[in-house]
From TrEMBL:
Entry protein name: HlyD family secretion protein
Transmembrane stretches, start-end: 16-37
All copies of domain Multidrug resistance protein MdtA-like barrel-sandwich hybrid, residue ranges: 55-124
Gene3D superfamilies recorded: 2.40.30.170, 2.40.50.100
Domain YknX-like beta-barrel span(s) in chain numbering: 136-216
């Protein structure tokens, strides 16, 4: 005999209704429990980016750029010659001043000059970054900052690497919000606009993050910071 789902529901309406209600409640409880757990044990944000301390490469003298032998993405060694200028009126003995060298071991992340450009010592021709010292800057809501401490473990996701996870730790917590120096906190009617401030938190990658040298500066990131829940916060007070 063919099973008639509609007849079954009609005959067992109360049981079916009860079952649906129980299922909905179970799902709701699961979602709420997950939200509460995540809120208690983690501080999370998608407002984060891969960053690095950038080093300027500049000439020692004024003169035309004759050679520029590196491209963006090239790895260079400290004191490696990467460019050469016209000596101009300098004697041949000053040739070393016309050579532009890399100030650190690092990665060329940006070229800002081309052969034929007239350069001066205040001109930056390239930006260098040390790929072994890349980090993440995460902007955390001011209401969550008090839960953070240096050395807390962080799970990091980089959009460029999809579902792959990286590990890190908090290195420093900013002492100034992103908008601390801005003066546009008032509406057109002169009323103060109260908004949640963001505090920058610096997160260093663990040494095990062997793909960090392939990150692109400015990559979007997401972080989940493991916070310690101290149920005996007052136990140490005397």
């Amino acid at each position: 005999m063919k099973f008639d789902i509609i007849s079954f529901i009609k005959k067992n309406r109360k049981k079916v209704t009860l079952g649906v209600i129980i299922a909905v409640i179970a799902v709701a409880v699961g979602l709420i429990s997950h939200y509460v757990y995540e809120h208690i044990y983690y501080v999370s944000t998608d407002d984060a980016k891969v960053a690095a301390d950038l080093i300027n490469v500049s000439p020692q003298i004024s003169g035309k750029l004759l050679e520029f032998d590196v491209d963006e993405g090239d790895i260079v060694l400290k004191d490696q010659i990467i460019a050469r200028q016209d000596l101009g009126n300098l004697p041949d003995s000053g040739v070393d001043k016309s050579l532009i060298r890399a100030p650190i071991d690092g990665l060329i992340v940006k070229k800002q000059a081309a052969v034929g450009d007239n350069l001066s010592p205040d001109k930056t021709i390239a930006l260098l970054a040390d790929p072994d010292n890349y980090y993440v800057i995460a902007n955390i809501d001011e209401t969550q900052v008090r839960r953070l401490q240096k050395k807390q473990t962080v799970d990091i996701s980089i959009d460029e690497f999809g579902s792959q996870k990286f590990k890190g730790r908090i290195e420093s917590i900013g002492q100034m919000s992103q908008n601390a120096l801005k003066s546009n906190s008032y509406s057109e009617k002169g009323k103060y606009k109260r908004v949640v401030q963001k505090v920058p938190v610096k997160i260093k990658f663990d040494g095990s993050s062997n793909l960090k040298s392939k990150f692109t500066l400015g990559d979007n990131a997401s972080v989940k910071i493991h916070v310690v829940v101290n149920n005996n916060a007052n136990s140490k007070k005397k």
